[in-house]
Amino acid sequence: MSKRLVWRQWTRGIPLYVMILPGLLFFLLFKYLPMAGIVIAFQQYDPFLGYQDSPWVGLLHFKNLFAEQDFLLLLKNTMILSAFNLFLFFPIPILLAVLLNEVRVSWFRKTMQTLVYMPHFLSWVVIVGITVLLFATQSGGINQVLANWNLPRLELLTDMNYFRYVYLFQNIWKEAGWSAIIFLAALASVDPSLYEAAVVDGAGRWRQIWHITLPALRTTIIILFILRLGSVMEIGFEHLYLMQNSLNREVSDVFDTYVYRNGVMQGEFSYTTAVGLFKSVVGLVLIIIANFASKKVGEEGVY
Asked: With a threshold of 0.70, does the pTM exceed it?
């Protein structure tokens, strides 16, 4: 291939390179460059001494983490909330995408898509604030109505038995519509003639969904599920921190909130960096295992 042809092909792709540049810069600045700071997980880091002069302690911080009194509680809460996200939240966007795909009235489908996308653009501060206004024990609107009707109040914010379900419902309401976008994009690539042939063969709507729609989503579902396993230890600090109080901390305290209390509030930078590294290693191992299992059964993987 001549140099002129190579140059022509490269210049033809310049608009695409410009489009991906912001994403590349984001990952470079906020994902890859900060990885150099992992070294302080093996040091007793002192901001005044810096990386080079801070004393090395090896695996001391990891030993302290595993010996921490609350370690098993943090791990339990993190894994339970992750299981809620993986097995209860994850199927909802798939179901929503299938339902929207089945709507044949264009204006109604677009309206519904807009409505389910909108909550994604609200911050967790707003969503938690709305929840507090509605369900605060004494001043919440719904609880005041229940009290006026001589009905028992809903202790959604103070009873730890309700916390995980409130967390799940808020996640579904805020993110299900946005998460459905990628599944709708996958369905947009399905050849319409497949549905036409299915109708000719006498297949009803449910048969079309089972034999055409869902198989078209299978690869996307597997890849996204594997990627979600990589963030199984990342529950989301802001959401949980805003919902957390002294009455539900037993079920709401996870590694993210623990890192905030010890790293930001108490200045234990090395220790909390070790906690973050532990979380990342767990996510990496889960991705490798899930990807290997997916390839083993003949499905697609992330690499």
From this structure: yes
